[in-house]
Amino acid sequence: MSSIAKQTPCSVIPCLRYRDAHAAIDWLCSTLGFEVQFVVPEEDGRVAHAQLTFGNSMVMLGSAFDTDYGRLLKQPQDIGGFVTQSSYLVVNDADLVYGRVLEAGGRILLDIKNEDYGGRGFTCSDPEGHIWSIGTYDPYASSDSAATSAASAA
After folding, report:
1. Measured distance CA(48)–CA(37) in Å, rounded
2. Measured between alpha carbons, how far is 129 from 75 in angstroms, rounded to an integer?
3. CA–CA separation, 119 vs 76, rounded Å?
4. Pairing, β 15-18 against β 57-63
5. Among 60, 69, 76, 81, which residue carries the largest CB count within 10 Å?
6. What pLDDT is recorded for position 143?
7. Mean pLDDT, rounded, of the chain
8. Which string of b and e fits 103-128 if b means at least 16 CB within 10 Å?
9. For the whole model, what pTM was predicted?
10. What are the φ/ψ torsions at residue 73 (nearest 5 degrees)?
């Protein structure tokens, strides 16, 4: 284990920017199952900072601002609908979340299917074009199984 990473419940936290952060928070919570931990508003009503939890994980997000940090980021609509990264959510029931995304008018990018490496999942975009992969594949459980198999073979 690296001594660089602080031992917290989650040491890697995706950070996202949205043009309409309030709508994004509502969609992420009602559709994907995030929960609001807290939101820091700007005086003009935009979101300076928000933290949404998902199980033992979290994303941080805020409104897209014209600041030094904000100018480092481009919204998917600014670059032809592409993104340079995505997030994966480990869920108990991918079909349930798939249905919620469809009901919320979400765009399915890769249809739900059973994966060759295990689990069942799909990929969608949120209303502003950020990509989310959602599935039952648990890389931690797979790592535990691989470690157990390797130890048994030795």
Report:
1. 14
2. 8
3. 28
4. parallel
5. 76
6. 61
7. 91
8. eeebeeeeebeeeeeebbbbbbbbbb
9. 0.88
10. -110, 145
Residue type, 154: A
Residue where the block lists tokens 């928000």: 50
Asked if 29 and 36 count as a contact pair (C-beta separation under 8 A), the reply is yes
Please give the average per-residue pLDDT across 2-18, as a whole number.
89
Distance between CA atoms of 147 and 49, rounded to whole angstroms? 39
Please provide the distance, in angstroms rounded to a whole number, between the alpha carbons at the two ends of the chain. 22
Residues 130, 32 contacting (CB under 8 angstroms) = no
> How many whole angstroms separate alpha carbon 4 and alpha carbon 80?
36
Pairing of strands 47-54, 57-63: antiparallel
149 to each of 144, 145, 152, how far by Cα in Å? 9, 6, 5
pLDDT at 57 over 70: yes
| Total residues found in the chain within this entry | 154
Closest CA to 115 of 144, 90, 145: 90
- Contact predicate 126/132, CB 8 Å: yes
Q: In what order do the strands lie in the sheet with 87-90?
A: 87-90, 131-135, 120-125, 107-114
The answer to whether 114 touches 5, Cβ cutoff 8 Å, is no
